[in-house]
Amino acid sequence: MAIIKIPAPPKSSMNRDRPVSGLLKSQILHLQEAEFRLPAKYQTNIYIHSIRTEGDAGEYIREVTQAIHAAHASRLRVAKRKPAPIFEIAAAAAKPRKTKAKPPTAKKKRKSKPRARASE
Amino acid sequence: MPPPGLDNLKHIVVLMMENRSFDHMLGALKAKDARIDGLTGAETNPDTTGATAPVLPTAEFQSQLDPDPDHHFPAVNLQIFNGGAAPTMQGFVKSYFNQRQDVAHSQKIMYYFTPEKLPVLSTLATEFAVFNRWFSSIPGPTICNRAFAHYGTSFGKVAMDLFYVNEPFKSIYSRLIDATPKHTAKLYYYDQTSSTMEIVNLLQHQPELFGTYTDFLNACKKGQLPDYSFIEPNYNDHDGDDGEELASDQHPDHNIQAGESFIASIYQAIKNNADLWKSTALLVVYDEHGGIYDHVPPPACTPDGFVASANETGIGADFKFDRLGVRVPAILISPWIPKGTVVDGRVFEHASIPATVTDHFLGTYDQRSPREKKAETFLDLLTSPTQRNDCPDFEEG
Predict the structure, then answer these.
(1) What residue numbers bound the domain in which B261 lies?
(2) Mind listing the pLDDT tens digit for each residue in B256-265?
(3) pLDDT reported for residue B256
């Protein structure tokens, strides 16, 4: 089996200050569309026209991507916690019990402290 | 009985890179293998002085194609038709001149890489299956072309303004996860600072479909790769958790070598897990040509059922999605593909991706765009009767 060596790019290739390309500008616009549909607390309030470099673009893209995931996770948590709708509860209560009813037993007397009588 | 490679196939992985034409990246391979429809060295374009600008093997890894060559609909129209009615592929230098008004610089759009400069892509192309006729879906930019890979259509869009999808065609991911029996699918973007170039719909409504490059590597290691994976490279230079992250998308003016390393890492992640390697097909493909020269005129295709208005195309005429965009590099990789396969005489485009994935995992599926229904599929290339054990490895060094 042949092993092919891959040369690493030079360190000087890195340039966070490179002006934003048309592609990144479009990506920012698309993410802004998504951001505007998020609840206000997840919106970044970053003014996208101030984004000039790839470094700036990356920051914005990261914040919105994280916000989208956070908002989605929050929606899922809320959906999990949400109680069953009332009509479902009512329907469940109306269902006949599958288990045999226990024979009636004498009600336990509730121990309770004597109520203090309101002063008259 | 299907060939054993197809019988074993459990995973399809697609890696879509950015903005390079076939001739620019793989054209020089024709000198090594005449079956590959690359460059003879005699191809030219006229420059704006009337002189001839030839193709030259002098492409550089970075800092050569700056500004980013125009690849929006009107510019690609000029590149293909050069102001005439026939697709002569003679307008690339003129189109690039329009951006900097510099004759010498405009000729660089004709430059191409030699195989020695691209050890990963060239090796994969000659070791596995290289497509002579894989075209971008639209003679236009990224977003609408990538939409074809996800949906089998761009819903009538020819530009970057594809913000919403309200059409009857589901994404390939939704088709798979909604199916009975259920399948698994994931889009892997590089990290959250690079995020996705998918139209915003999927990330917005189904963020659970997404993972990161690290998640992909872990899934390969653990043998937990989904049935279908779509991988996006890093689209910007940034600082990550492990230090500097160099853009690996190969979009001009990002470093080509970073993309080479990225492609190799995806290949190696699959190959290093023996079970995964024998049950996975990896497609490496580019979204569009990025305004860079290619000599093959894009052919006509089945109309998409949508029409982009003259206002949207910017060329004073409607576009009926009845012809393809410029040719791009595409390589299919699997140990079940005979070494040195050259796919010729068949036309592929990005709608071939959802078409192939749908056919393989779901079978009959009617709710697809006309283009996707007619698109060629590519898994028939896994024809080797036995699994190859001579496939190469890549190593940083």
Answers:
(1) 4-28+115-381
(2) 999 999 999 9
(3) 98
State the Cα–Cα distance between residues A39 and A67, nearest whole angstrom: 10
- Angle between helix B73-81 and B92-100 (nearest 10): 140
**Where residue B127 sits, what CATH number does that domain have?**
3.40.720.10
Does residue B310 lie within any of the structural domains? yes
Nearest chain A residue (CA) to B193: A62
Summarize pLDDT for A3-58 with one digit per residue, the tens.
Answer: 999 999 999 999 999 999 999 999 999 999 999 999 999 999 999 999 999 999 99
Task: List the Cα angle B353/B354/B355 in 5-degree steps.
Answer: 90
Mutate: best of B62, B116, B192, partner A, most A CBs <10 A: B192
Length of chain B: 397
Report, as ranges of residue numbers, the positions in chain B whose pLDDT lies below 70. Answer: none
Partners of A1 on chain B (C-beta within 8 Å) are 389-393
Domains of chain A, residue spans: 16-83
ipTM of the complex: 0.94
Residue A109 pLDDT exceeds 70:
no
Residue of B nearest to A65 (CA): B192
Residue B370 contacts A where some CB pair is shorter than 8 Å: no
Within 60-99 of B, beta carbons closer than 8 Å to A belong to 61-62, 68
Q: In chain B, what residues touch A13 (CB-CB under 8 Å)?
A: 61-62, 237, 246, 255, 257-258
Chain B residues closer than 8 Å to A27 by CB:
195, 197, 235
pLDDT interval class at A116 (50, 70, 90): very low
Contact B389 A9 (CB under 8 A): no
Is B275 a member of any domain?
Answer: yes
Contacts of B99 by beta carbon, 8 Å cutoff, 6+ apart: B67, B69, B70
The answer to whether B193 contacts A61, with C-beta atoms less than 8 Å apart, is: yes
Eight-state DSSP code of residue B349: E
Q: Which is more confident, A2 or B137?
A: B137
The span from the CA of B227 to the CA of B12, in Å, is 6
Nearest Cβ partner of A14 from B123, B246, B391? Answer: B246
Question: What pLDDT does residue A79 have?
Answer: 84
**Residue B137 near residue B351, CB atoms below 8 Å:** yes
pLDDT of A96 strictly over 60: no
Looking at the structure of chain B, the number of domains it has is: 1
- pLDDT at position A92 is 52
B67 within domain boundaries: no
CB contact under 8 A, B239 and A34: no
* pLDDT single digits (tens) B178-201: 999 999 999 999 999 999 998 888
> Residue B211 pairs with which residues in a beta bridge?
B188
Higher pLDDT: B354 or A93? It is B354
Instruction: Give the sign of the dihedral formed by CA B99, CA B102, CA B103, CA B107.
Output: negative
* B24 located within any domain: yes
Output the pLDDT for position A100.
45
